[in-house]
Design goal:
The chain has 2 helices and 8 strands; from the N terminus they run H-E-E-H-E-E-E-E-E-E. It is of the alpha+beta class. A hairpin with a 3-residue loop joins strand 3 and strand 4. The chain is elongated, with a radius of gyration of 23 Å. About 15% of the residues have low confidence.
């Protein structure tokens, strides 16, 4: 018994060759656009409360860009648990920047998805509901001051 197979045309072979060459390159270019990017950007912010100033550099993810677009903001910063300060945003941020991340460290600036608040850590932490927005550059010792205080956040 003989099986008749259709002959491949030059057009089909050329299309297959192009697809083989182009698809891996397209996949590599998407890797640089990781929605949970932890790469620093030129988006810098200043946070002022209790006469102290902290600065932070935001990361290149959609949630961080959404947060940056809301600035300036006047909020209230308050203690939470034993390792962080929180501030509630006027609206929830996009969650496109969500994704697992490791290497959690004190002085990370995060967004807590379930409650829609900023989480500013000054001690060790680990929680799956967070999107890391950036990292404090200087003045982060102000996070150790306890109390509920007015907070101003603005672009630098």
């Amino acid at each position: 018994m003989t099986i008749d197979r259709p002959k491949l045309s030059r057009r089909t072979l050329l299309g297959a060759a192009l697809a083989t060459a182009v698809l891996p390159r397209a996949a590599r270019s998407q890797q640089g656009r990781d929605p949970a990017s932890q790469e620093p950007t030129d988006m810098r912010i200043r946070m002022i409360f209790n006469g102290r100033t902290m600065t932070a550099t935001l990361y290149g993810n959609p949630s961080a860009r959404d947060f940056f677009s809301m600035l300036p903001l006047d909020l209230t910063i308050d203690d939470y648990a034993h390792n962080e300060k929180i501030a509630y945003l006027p609206r929830k941020l996009t969650e496109e920047g969500s994704g697992p991340f490791a290497n959690e460290r004190p002085y990370d600036l995060c967004y807590f998805m379930p409650w829609g608040n900023l989480a500013m850590f000054y001690d060790e932490y680990r929680h799956p509901g967070l999107i890391r927005l950036g990292r404090f550059d200087e003045g982060e010792e102000a996070l150790h001051i306890s109390g509920k205080l007015p907070l101003r956040i603005e672009r630098i």
